[in-house]
């Protein structure tokens, strides 16, 4: 029950982000291993596929970041411009990420600002601790 209440509250905050930035299509919060924590603007299957893809992207971005002298190898923000729109992936707490798909008409500056504001406001609630190994039955 507590997990459902947490997701409902998170979904509401994601809806606020989506409605505050015109041209926002999908918003997903995911764990570092690609599991959807919360979503807005898509069905669960689409959000799950996006979360899984984001896990690979954040891992790749971290590998690239580790090539910079003095970098700790953690990614903070990835922005991809593609035909039809933009993709944003932002670190959002320990082991959690905020992902957004938006149409090409989105105000990129406003999106970045609203994502940062959301992460600062609820970052500690977005943390996804690592899952423990499975116990033998």
UniProtKB/TrEMBL annotation:
Gene3D superfamilies (alphabetical): Dynein light chain 2a, cytoplasmic
InterPro entries: Mycobact_SerProt_Inhib_Rv3364c, Roadblock/LAMTOR2_dom
Record key words, sorted: Membrane, Transmembrane, Transmembrane helix
Transmembrane domains' residue ranges: 84-102
Pfam families: Robl_LC7
SMART domains linked to this entry: Robl_LC7
Keyword Membrane part of the UniProt annotation: yes
Top-level lineage group: Bacteria
Residues covered by the Roadblock/LAMTOR2 domain: 11-102
Protein name: Roadblock/LC7 domain-containing protein
Organism: Streptomyces qinzhouensis
């Amino acid at each position: 029950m507590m997990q459902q209440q947490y997701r409902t509250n998170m979904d509401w905050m994601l809806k606020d982000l989506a409605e505050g930035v015109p041209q926002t299509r999908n918003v997903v919060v995911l764990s570092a291993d690609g599991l959807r924590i919360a979503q807005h603007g898509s069905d669960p299957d689409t959000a799950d596929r996006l979360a899984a893809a984001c896990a690979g992207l954040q891992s790749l971005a971290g590998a690239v970041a580790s090539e910079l002298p003095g970098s700790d190898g953690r990614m903070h923000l990835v922005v991809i411009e593609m035909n039809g729109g933009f993709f944003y992936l932002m670190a959002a707490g320990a082991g959690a990420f905020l992902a957004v798909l938006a149409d090409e008409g989105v105000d990129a500056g406003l999106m970045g600002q609203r994502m940062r504001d959301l992460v600062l406001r609820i970052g500690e609630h977005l943390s996804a601790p690592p899952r423990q190994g499975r116990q033998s039955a």
